[in-house]
Amino acid sequence: SQTIHQWPATLVQPVGSPLSLECTVEGTSNPNLYWYRQAAGRGLQLLFYSVGIGQISSEVPQNLSASRPQDRQFILSSKKLLLSDSGFYLCAWSPKGWSKNIQYFGAGTRLSVL
Amino acid sequence: QKEVEQNSGPLSVPEGAIASLNCTYSDRGSQSFFWYRQYSGKSPELIMFIYSNGDKEDGRFTAQLNKASQYVSLLIRDSQPSDSATYLCAVNAAGGTSYGKLTFGQGTILTVHP
Q1: What is the pLDDT at residue B1?
Q2: Which end of chain B has a smaller Cβ tally under 10 Å, C or N?
Q3: How does DSSP assign chain A, residue by residue?
């Protein structure tokens, strides 16, 4: 069976510090991968998606970047965090082809920028 | 801008009643529709998906889709306090280059009181 791992679960960072959140998927190959952010009491905002190694598409201009160095690894980064980067960050994966876009989420990382 | 609209609630129903959650979407070409449940502080969990017009039942849950009206709903029969959560409606982005992207509604908060 497939599983998705995200870490850390909780992170408190000062403004201006760097960020690196990691997500890995097990039990599948060549998945589509996604990073979302959810502000308190709000819906999910798609930040980045990737259809393969080194292929990253950005949905909104922001202070963040993403990379996919390996098939099942997706990394969200920032060089200097802003207060507005606080939120709940979710990684998701989707199998290609017949699945018709079903996405499965990791447990999430709650980021507080102070 | 493709949109998915949900009533934010909160929707409050007594235990044992039917909870009805509604969602409308703007992209007429969408083909896949999903309902996720999100408990407070947790990540979204897929509970239902539907691709064809009509009803789809899974246990106490029924998803209903009407593509002509661009409307999808979720019925929860015999509601339990454990059903209290935020329910997110998600719709795929139509088009061959959509890469499995989903657009999420803001979510409806459901409270089931004993």
Answers
A1: 63
A2: N
A3: --EEEEE-SEEEE-TT--EEEEEEEES-SS-EEEEEEE-TT--EEEEEEEEETTEEEESS-SS-EEEEEETTEEEEEESS--GGG-EEEEEEEE-SSTTTT--EE---EEEEE-
